[in-house]
Design goal:
Two copies of one chain form a homodimer. By secondary structure, the first copy, chain A, is an all-alpha fold. Helix content of chain A is 75%, strand content 0%. The longest helix of chain A has 27 residues. At the A-B interface, helix 7, helix 8 and helix 9 of A face helix 6, helix 7, helix 8 and helix 9 of B. The structure holds a DNA duplex (30 and 30 nucleotides).
Chain lengths: 217, 217
DNA sequence: CAGCAAAATTGAACATCGTTCATTTTTGGC
DNA sequence: GCCAAAAATGAACGATGTTCAATTTTGCTG
């Protein structure tokens, strides 16, 4: 820690190049995940696609899992843009329906990248997984905002819990359908199924709030 | 195909031994999955646990994936017994709630075996994956039966589709919570969260059926 | 019981994987 | 142009799933 900075801004130009390598690797990793799936993300093919040596991957990232996580972060950003677009101009139950269908559409249109979001298991939970949770929290706030407009009679922390529940429920429907390991819905029926499901949820919530305001028993 | 059966029942005693090996391997595979997870199912450690040679695995099964699938089939049988027990003596919404909570409990208590049910990706979709779908279909019939008792006004094929949707929704809530990659519920809140969710669903369905029978608008 | 062909078992060997690290090449201020 | 520090390189390592030639076991036969 004593002789580190004896030269001025040596690190500046260097870090630009190394940052460029990092981005090149993340992009290459994302492309491979999106085209051949997470299991197709091999170190040697990745190095070829990013035009770097095998060992350079490990000077830019701790391991392939960390790199895959950054690629997933990119997918999560794409998902967020889709969901934000689906919500603009809509409120309440209408917004919830649109969000659910947009999620299903994103999963279908970006199948492999979407699958990788849930297939990746990190051996050593990484520092950047905090970014991952942050990104997901932002998605959840889209749901929370829509729920507030229903309006449902719950405390703020209940609202947050319900947002997580409804996101997870829609995700489960999409997941079981697309993974094809269990008995799910055919992809072409998925959006309609989710639309009906979210409608049922929203109606149930509205009825709950209504009966709470006017309990006629 | 001409000289195959020139001896009487040679295959009988032989097939008994080979069947015993298959069962020994499936049991050993299940134990390893249940204790160290699907990724801990390695050929060499499996051979050690089953007291057989490395190559014997491949005379009993096509590959490790097929073996893991039979271990998963065993887990699915355990899950089915849990769910059947949870449903006995209950009907309608009460049965649905009990099923959902039992599913969450099974996932928590058999975490690694339950995760393996969804983590396994088959390279070559196997013949026995039909058994897998059959087992899942039987689980779904538990839900369908409960739904019929609500009663909800839908056609039989709609009832089947709704069963799949509700199973997938509950699975999603459990999955997101336990995998811990996204923002889910803490395990100790999971059952309560699912109970409330299933109640909401059942109430929504009952309201739907009620308003259909007496449309006072 | 001995003979023997077929079946089952074995584990060394192979290809491929993620990862490491000694060596080489590049970099940028003096 | 020099040179120390940084970056890039790819051969090598250990572990993986899978194969297969060699060996052992099996169970009927004369």
């Amino acid at each position: 820690m004593n002789t580190v900075q004896k030269r001025g801004d040596v690190t500046e130009k260097r870090s630009k190049k190394s940052q460029a390598l990092r981005e090149r690797l993340i992009d290459a990793a994302w492309r491979r995940i999106a085209t051949v799936g997470l299991s197709g993300l091999t170190a040697r093919e990745l190095a070829a696609e990013a035009n770097c040596a095998l060992g350079s991957i490990y000077s830019a990232f701790d391991d392939l899992d960390q790199l895959a996580m950054y690629a997933n972060l990119k997918s999560l950003g794409m998902l967020e843009r889709c969901l934000v677009a689906a919500k603009t101009g809509r409120t309440g139950a209408d917004a919830l329906r649109s969000l659910g269908c947009a999620y299903a559409r994103f999963a279908i249109e970006n199948r492999l990248a979407w699958e990788a979001l849930f297939d990746l298991r990190l051996l050593h939970p990484q520092p950047a997984s905090a970014d991952f949770v942050d990104a997901h929290s932002h998605l959840l706030s889209l749901i929370t905002d829509a729920l507030r407009e229903i309006p449902v009679d719950t405390t703020p922390q209940d609202l947050s819990a319900r947002s997580r529940t409804y996101f997870a429920a829609v995700h489960g429907i999409v997941s079981i359908s697309l993974q094809g390991r269990f008995v799910g819905h055919p992809p072409e029926r998925l959006e309609a199924e989710i639309d009906a499901f979210v409608t049922l949820l929203a109606d149930g919530l509205a009825a709950e709030a209504g009966s709470a305001r006017s309990p006629q028993q």
